[in-house]
Design a protein that fits this description.
Layout (H helix, E strand, L loop, with lengths): L1 E6 L4 H4 L5 H17 L4 E4 L13 H9 L6 E4 L2 E2 L5 H14 L4 E6 L4 H7 L5 H17 L4 E4 L4 E4 L20 E6 L5 H9 L2 E4 L4 H17 L10 E3 L2 E3 L3 H9 L2 H14 L26 H8 L1 E3 L1 H15 L4 E5 L8 H14 L4 H9 L2
Parallel strand pairs: 1-2, 1-13, 2-3, 3-5, 4-5, 5-8, 8-9, 9-10, 10-13, 11-12
Antiparallel strand pairs: 6-7
Helix pairs in contact: 2-13, 4-6, 7-8, 12-13
């Protein structure tokens, strides 16, 4: 079983003027160093433009910086928001990033969900169409030899033929293998997972309940087989907050009374209790077990019954339970939280995760490798 971090980042102190952008950046790079040191498998950086509590407009810059301070951990974007980039420019930059990281780069792509970001770029409600068109162009840049031309609705692209005079076009992936591409999904019958399956990309499930997770795998695996691919549970990532401490009581306190609890209480939960999916469901409903109501979706319930919070023994048991309930998966990716005012417990959390929890879950990872 692999573990990773997802640096959104959440920084209420930045949005309220108590933290500088430099401090936000430095904390996420420190997390990358710790995660690399303690054996975590990957770290992801998000892309947002107009959300002050989630300040991260340039995941590629964060990945480039982290690559110079780490040795083995994979470095991903979750995700590059394709409607806000020229896809040829992005595809070429990311190939260079793939080479800079010696193949450690993971490409996450998304259409963008925040309306104010779309307003800033004036995409006119066309994000979904732009996303699919951009994927076609990026795939062509990464995998097709020229000459070729694509005439799209939003972008045109034309790859010239190789010439001896210019010794190009010349960009290729590291070791001739394009980056892994992942797409995230939240709805039970996620259209993003269908697109991922049809293109041979890997899935990452947002924080949702077990019933929705099982629906995610059914949606993805069915579409994969129909598209001629063999789906592997080993590549399936599930987002679920993780915090490990010496005892269950200490872990619960550090989450509930620390920055993670404050961020969920003041920012994430209010959004999930009001925002809706494109299918009309309130996002928070996707967390709930059968028989629960939205009133039951509280911070205490998340800490005690949903997240992977506790001592090493407890977290190992919770991961195994989740793995059994969904039939096998490959990686837990935890949201990262900004414990800058008291960083030692968060560092220790990552140390315990890498040195105490992960070694005891090797059999779970092996199971996921064999389960399709």
């Amino acid at each position: 079983m692999d573990f990773g971090l997802f640096c959104t980042p959440y920084s209420p102190d930045y949005s309220e003027g108590r933290r500088t952008a430099s401090e936000v950046i430095a904390w996420d790079l420190q997390l990358a160093e710790w995660a690399d040191q303690y054996g975590l498998s990957e770290i992801f950086f998000a892309e947002h433009y107009t959300i002050g509590v989630e300040p991260s407009p340039a995941p590629d810059i964060m990945i480039a910086a982290a690559s110079q301070r780490t040795k083995r951990i994979k470095l991903g974007a979750a995700a590059h928001l394709l409607p806000y980039h020229n896809p040829v420019n992005l595809a070429c930059r990311l190939l260079w990033l793939h080479n800079m990281t010696n193949g450690r780069y993971i490409a996450g792509f998304a259409p963008g969900s925040f309306p104010t970001d779309a307003q800033l770029f004036d995409t006119g409600g066309n994000n979904a169409e732009m996303f699919s068109e951009a994927l076609d162009i990026i795939d062509a840049v990464w995998n097709r030899k020229g000459p070729w031309r694509i005439d799209g609705k939003y972008w045109n692209a034309e790859m010239p033929e190789y010439t001896e005079q210019w010794r190009g076009p010349h960009l290729t992936p590291f070791d001739s293998t394009p980056p892994e591409v992942l797409l995230t999904g939240m709805q039970a019958n996620s259209p993003t997972f269908i697109e991922a399956a049809q293109r041979g990309f890997t899935p990452m499930s947002q924080q949702v309940g077990v019933d929705v997770l099982n629906a995610h795998w059914e949606t993805y695996s069915t579409a994969s087989v129909e598209a001629g691919f063999t789906p592997s549970r080993r590549s399936w990532r599930i987002l679920r907050d993780v915090f490990v401490a010496e005892t269950d009581e200490e872990a619960r306190r550090l989450v509930r009374d620390g920055q993670a609890g404050q961020t969920w209480r003041d920012h994430i939960l209010p959004v999930f209790k009001t925002a809706k999916t494109s299918g009309g469901a309130v996002l928070g409903e996707l967390f709930l077990d059968p028989g629960m109501t939205m009133d039951d979706l509280t911070l205490d319930w998340l800490v005690d019954h949903f997240w992977l919070v506790g001592s090493p023994d407890t977290v190992v048991a919770k991961v195994k339970e989740l793995d059994e309930k969904v039939g096998g998966f490959g990686s837990v990716v935890s949201l990262a939280h900004e414990y800058l005012n008291d960083p030692e417990p968060y560092r220790r959390n990552l140390e315990l995760l890498g040195t105490e929890v992960m070694p005891r879950l090797a059999d779970v990872g092996a199971r996921a490798t064999s389960v399709v």
